[in-house]
Amino acid sequence: MSKIDVIRKYAKQITDMDGMEIGPPIILDEISFVPIIKEEIPLDQRDYLTLSEALETGVCKIIDKGTEVAHISFQNLGDLPILIEEGEIFKGSGTQDRISVGTVMIQPSEMIEIAVKCVHAPHHLSAGAAFGYGGKASREMLNEIRVMKYSNAQMNIPASTIDQSRVWSKVSEEMESEEDVSDITQYSQGVQIRRKRAKKRSEKVNFPKNTVGFIVINPKGEVKGIEVHRSPHNFNVRKDGIFESLEANISWEPIGKGPFQNSNEKVKGLFEKLSNLKEGKDALKQVDVDGLVINTEGLTGEAFTSAFYSDVCPSCNKSKPRKKACPHCGFLEDSSEELAYMSLL
């Protein structure tokens, strides 16, 4: 099954209520959050770590190459794959802050180069400098990057070659609207300020058990974001970060109109569109990042699929890395491709 087939199948499961369910909308300040609920959860919810989890537990090493802006080195030191989402910020220690331009999953013991762009123009590069977690970019920044990525994908050009000057312009544009930012060229400053506001909102929204994602709809019926993770665990870990990304893209001031009345039908219609994605027309593979870039009927974003393997060999019952081949007996574990992460607007 191809990656686009996996996405279509997932979307159809939601529209047909086949193992997935569209839950009743949860309202906050006239904004509707429509949960996507999974009937059955994976046996092991911790099938991958998010970037923030990996940095918090010290199971990854991220360093600046020092020779170019567009890639940084990432090493997975742990036993679980690590998922890096598009738009996540790598906060540099004595070097430029960077933003991930695409979604990628790093397998245990793997070391790869991550495609990034600079979001802190004045700083010099510093070979060997480390990075911490800087939060998640806004929807506006993601949209800017997504438009450029889709154009590159059409021409089979690496995602890492998107226009750096457009990224810097977007940094300045966003930061000028944040009153407490002292340096409008440092994107992570604004992200940290938004993070505090977003966390307060996130704490007010209680999603049902087994929620794996949600769709955000404003009072006008406009979809302001779609976020889906594979398991409730991964969704719960990323919940605050999702609100952080939405913070600058939603008008939170009530307009007196009340929440949109047909949000669940709107959501069903969106996933019906996704269940009919056409490869090449609506969704394209990208060079040097793993996710499919999607641009169809007003929906733009990225979806990432992956095969997931157990940490115990089904043949010899010995502990093993979460990879297809068992290092002890050579058994090749059978595992189908599944949707791991989707982010659309």
Blueprint (SSEs and pairs):
Elements: H1 3-15, E1 20-22, E2 26-28, E3 31-38, E4 49-50, H2 51-57, E5 60-64, E6 71-76, E7 82-84, E8 88-92, E9 98-100, E10 104-106, E11 111-118, E12 131-136, H3 139-154, H4 164-176, H5 187-204, E13 211-217, E14 223-229, H6 232-246, H7 263-274, E15 283-284, E16 292-296, E17 299-307, E18 337-344
Parallel strand pairs: 4-7
Antiparallel strand pairs: 1-3, 2-3, 3-13, 5-6, 6-11, 7-10, 8-9, 8-12, 9-11, 13-14, 14-18, 15-16, 16-17, 17-18
Helix pairs in contact: 1-7, 3-4, 5-6
Notes on the structure:
The chain is α+β, with helices and mostly antiparallel strands and 345 residues long. The protein has one domain (3-344). The chain contains 7 helices and 18 strands. Strands 1, 2, 3, 13, 14, 15, 16, 17 and 18 form a 9-stranded antiparallel β-sheet that branches. A 6-stranded antiparallel β-sheet has the order 5-6-11-9-8-12, with helices on both faces. Strands 4-7-10 form a 3-stranded mixed β-sheet. Helix 3 runs antiparallel to helix 4 (164-176) and helix 5 packs across helix 6.
